[in-house]
Amino acid sequence: MMPDLGRYAMEVSLAYVASLGLLAVLVLWVWLRGRAVRRALDEFEKDRRGHG
Amino acid sequence: MASFWEYANPLKFMRTTDWLLPVVAMAALVVTAIGLIWGFFLTPDDFRQGATVKIVFLHVPAAMMAINAWAMMLVASLFWLIRRHHVSALAAKAAAPVGLVMTLIGLITGAVWGQPMWGTWWAWDPRLTSFLILFLFYLGYIALWAAIEDPDTGADLTAVLCLVGTVFAVLSRYAALFWNQGLHQGASLSVAPGTRMDWAYKAPLYVSMTGFGLIFVALVLAGTRTEIRARRMKALVARERMA
Fold first, then answer.
1. A31 and B222: CB-CB below 8 Å?
2. Which of the residues in chain B have pLDDT under 50?
3. What pLDDT is stored for residue B169 in this prediction?
4. Which chain B residue has its CA at the smallest distance from A13's CA?
5. Do the Cβ atoms of A26 and B98 come within 8 Å?
6. Of B45, B54, B97, B185, which has the fewest Cβ atoms less than 10 A away?
7. Nearest alpha-carbon partner for B65 in B223, B226, B220, B221
8. For B47-52, which contacts have Cβ atoms below 8 Å and span 24 or more sequence positions?
9. A52–B contact, CB cutoff 8 A
């Protein structure tokens, strides 16, 4: 149930949407970058083992 | 119990964070959700600030972590400069984007709260200005890491930049006390007698602060793991080129 934010509904909603949005983007960026680097390293090592 | 210095070994760090990271990440999610849901849905309006008081559950934890992230980077940078502790240099690098976002959240939520309460989105107040400079230092720190090819040189130069930026991290924490002027009030929470905040707000605020702290730890652990892998990849490529 949404609380009654009165005449400050826009400000409070904006603060929460912007903050949670920024946190979500940060978490997504950390996760995606981590996955990309891990895959690249795994492939590199697998490839070198194959040639070794 | 392993000595702290054993974590200078990337393999040891990776093994420990294999199980630690999911635990911290889950705790961060649960504690932050409890703090923000409690603060947003279950706290009463303030008699002066109305519903804008609910912004404090984002603003204070984010601002606290913006400064603490820089403090952690400072300690990690000193470990690097004194002990050449590679994992600590990479942990400082991983902490910077998290600190940057925390600073941005602090600035945005402060502006959104300030407009109805102070009648302005922004003022060149000592604390606000030092916080903006801290934000620019985060950007500079990240840009410096990205600009330097050699990881050890990058770690050296960014560590020095971190030492310089610490002045603004300290100022952004204590500016309101140093100058005793400007729009920004003093600390919202204090252990001193006569503290201004009621427990109806203080309790969810402490939970939210703990949650933001755990988010920071989880993201830095994850980021450090990525930086360790990226550095290993770079070293392997370099070794292959030399062979």
1. yes
2. 191
3. 79
4. B55
5. yes
6. B185
7. B220
8. B49/B117, B50/A6, B50/A7, B50/A8, B51/A3, B51/A4, B51/A5, B51/A6, B51/A8, B51/A9, B51/A12, B52/A8, B52/A11, B52/A12, B52/B113, B52/B116, B52/B117
9. no
Of B188, B50, B66, B32, nearest to B113 by C-alpha is: B50
What is the C-alpha to C-alpha distance for residues B99 and B172, in angstroms, rounded to an integer?
A: 14
Q: What share of chain A is helix, strand, coil (3-state, %, to 5)?
A: 90, 0, 10
Q: Could you give the dihedral angle defined by the CA atoms of residues B220, B225, B86 and A40, in that order, rounded to the nearest 10 degrees?
A: -140
Residue segments in chain A with a per-residue pLDDT below the cut of 70: 51-52
Contact B139, B100 (CB under 8 A): yes
Average per-residue pLDDT for chain A: 92
DSSP state of B44: P
Of B54, B222, B230, the CB nearest to A12: B54
Residue A52 lies in a domain: yes
A10 lies in some domain: no
Give yes or no for A23 touching B (CB within 8 A): yes
Is A17 near chain B, with CB under 8 Å? no
Tokens of B166: 């610490």
Residue A3 lies in a domain: no
Instruction: Name the interface residues of B facing A (CB cutoff 8 Å).
Output: 36, 40-41, 45, 50-52, 54-55, 58-59, 62, 97-98, 101, 104-105, 108-109, 112-113, 115-116, 215, 219, 222-223, 225-226, 229-230, 232-233, 236-237, 240
Q: Kindly state the tokens that stand for B84.
A: 């050449």
Domain residue limits at A41: 23-52
Residue A43 lies in a domain: yes
